Each structure stands twice: as structure tokens, then as C-alpha cells.
Please model this.
Amino acid sequence: MQCTHAEKLIPLFAGDDLPAREAGALRRHLESCANCRRLASEFEESHDWLRGFAAQQFDDVVLNDMRDSVLRDIGRIENRARRFQWIVPGWNLKFAASMAVLLLIVFAATYAYRGRRPQMIPGKENFVEINPGGGRKYSPGGAQGNDELNPSPVPTQRLAPKRAHGINENRDVKPVRLPDLAVVNTPIVPTIINIGPVFEPPPLGADLAMDDAIFNREMTRIEFQTADPNIRIIWLAPKESDSSSIKPSASAR
Amino acid sequence: MEIALMAEKIEGHDESRDREEAVATTARLIIRAKAGDTTAFDQIVIGHQRRVFSLAWRLLGNREDARDAAQETFLRVYKSFGKFDPAQDFNGWLYRITVNVCRDLARKRRGGHFSLEAEVKSGAIAEPASHHNTESAAMLAQEHAILLRALATLPEKERAAIVLRDLEGLDTEEVARILGSSPTTVRSQISAARVKIKAFRDRFLKRGAAPRA
Model:
């Protein structure tokens, strides 16, 4: 064994902490090396000096004072536990606190989810739905006594036959005939009234729904589908005008 | 010779029987304390407070901190009784808690220093009984100061290892269990601690003066 290796083992050898094999090898080295033997002797002396310090003797007053503090703290812990026992009987306080936190998280998540409502597109509330038949929902007019705010559905348009029998044999001329009216929901009996020149409804502005609402309130509008599916007759009349002076004025569109 | 050997055997037998009885008594007290009997817990404190106090004092170096550490140790023991199995080694468990409490306290109060005068004034270290023993008592106090100062210079883990091994007399495996390390690591820490303590002692005892408080 080299002295450098022996010097590392000597501190443990002095306290009898070396495994038996290493202790034996070191002992053999110490027999032949005076320096290492002197070093081992110094370490043993230091170790004995250290071990010579017995457990410190403390004053009983100090110890009793410490014990009283411990018992006082334990009493406080017991009282606190009893108080919480009244609030949360038989439950572990930590468990109760964890459940409270969990409920808080669930509540917060539910509140956040409910707060997120689907956003409405502006103006869509009043959007007048156009039915597949091409007509618009409208209010038929005050003469009929219908509710202006609850427009009846427009009469559905039936696909007119391509050829009207016995009326016109000329294929180029598309026959126009009086309405083959099919009322689906509400019977609408159009009154024959004189109307002024047909005019186009006001150009559609940004707010289509508002325009339609205003227009429907001001005019009576009756639509007829001719035999030709591409031709439709629209009768328009101001609502407040005298019905006797208004004549139906058909126009092809 | 044979009689001496027999006497030694009987003594050893008596000692081990005493130890077994002490362990059984502690186990009974622990079971009662776990059931909520504070009188039993008080008995446990009385039976172990000196050891805990002494260990804390050696680890921390002053009486006030040692008192706080001992108080905290017994409070933690009380709170953790529910998890403790009476079949386990109570002393080892108590040591472990004491070492952890002292480590936590030392970290909180870094920079604490040891004062021998303060310790004698506070009564933690008894003054010399009579003038006949004054000189030897003074020397003992001086050496005690050197020891505590030497311990204070050690890193936390080395200090805990050397105090448990050389001052408390526990074996390396038990020290390793208490510190949560391997026996090899503990041996390495003990070796380093002994080298430093020897160097410190040689410096002050060869000079012939005690370290300043």
C-alpha cells in the first residue's frame, strides 16, 4: 500500500469505520511506515478527544420550560382541530380544503363557459327570410286586416306548365294569364284595386331587413306567378290610399 | 478469568434486556399517544428531551436555537404520529426529525455564532463547582468551545454525520438511514469531518488559546 492511499484511509481507521480487508492492509502498512504510524496516532488522539465529550448536561429548568411550550402548542393544535371538527365533522381539514378549491375551479369554469354566448351578427335579427319559392315574407296589407308585424307567408309559387292549352299555339309568345294562385297557409284574397304606376322597391341598402320592414309597412304587395316560371306579376299599392281608385296594374317582370 | 467473562456476559445480557424493556415501554407509550393520550406523549418527551436537546445544541451551536429546534422536533413528532408505525425504530425516527429541524433552522438563521461566555451566562453550560476545579473546568470549557467552533466550521452534512457517529455513538448504517444517504457516502463525510476537526484542534491547542467567541 502506498502512503498516499494510506493517508486517505487513516481517518476512518481511527474510528474503526474501515471494512475488515482494508483495515488489515493498512495495519500491515503501518507496521512498516513510521510517518503513517505517527499520523494514525494523531488521528486516534483527536478521535478520542471528540468522543470524550459526553452528552451535555442541561439545567432542568431549561428542559421543563421547553416541555411546557410543547404541551401548550399541542393544546392549541387540539383546540383548533376541535373547532374545525364542528365545521367539518369527521373530515380531514386538508381534504376539505382541497374539495373547496376544486369546487371553486369548477364554478369558475362553468361561469366562464356560460359567459361565452354566441355573438349575433348585427342586423340579422330582422333579416327577412326568403323562401325557396322566391317570395318574401311580407304583410299583405291593412285592408285584409292582417297583422303587419306578423307577415303571412307569400303564396307559394307553383311551377306553371310550360304550355297553356288552347290559349296560344305560338311557341314564341309566352302566354300570360291570370294567376293560378295557390295559397299555402293563409288564404289571401287579393282585392282588385287601382294602383299607380308600379315602381321598383327602393334599392336595397345596407340594411336589407330594415328596408323591407319599412316597405312592407308602406305598401301592399301582391305577387302572382304566371304560367311562365320566369314571369311574375307584382301588385303594389300604398296601404293608406283609397281602394276604389286603385286598379290592378299587371306588369311582367 | 472465567468469572470475569461470565460477569461481563451477564452485564451485557442485562444491558440488552434493559434496552429491550425501554423499547417496549416506548412502543406502549407511542400507541397510547397515537390514540390521543397527551400524558403518554408527555412521558415520551421526558424520556427523550435531553438527547434531542443535546443533539440540537451540537448541530446548531447555541442554546436558544437548540431549544427552538427541540420544541419544533417534538411538535413534528406529535403531528406525524399518525404515520409512524410502532414496530419501527423510534430513536432513529426521532434523530431524523431532529436533524431535519436543525438543518431547516440553520438555513433560516445563517451567520449564527457560538459564544462560550453567552452559554455559561445563560446557564446552559454549568460553571465550575469549586475553586479547586477551576483550572480543569476552565480547560474543559475551553476545549468544549474548540469542539463547538470546529463543528460550526463543517458543512451541514459532514457536521450531522460526525455528530451522529462520534458524539451520539450510532453506527455508520444507522447514520446513513437517518441522513437518507448510503453508508459509503456517510463514511466519506465522516472522514472529511475528522480531518477538519483534527486540523482545527491542532491549530488552537498547539497555540494554547481558545478561539474567540
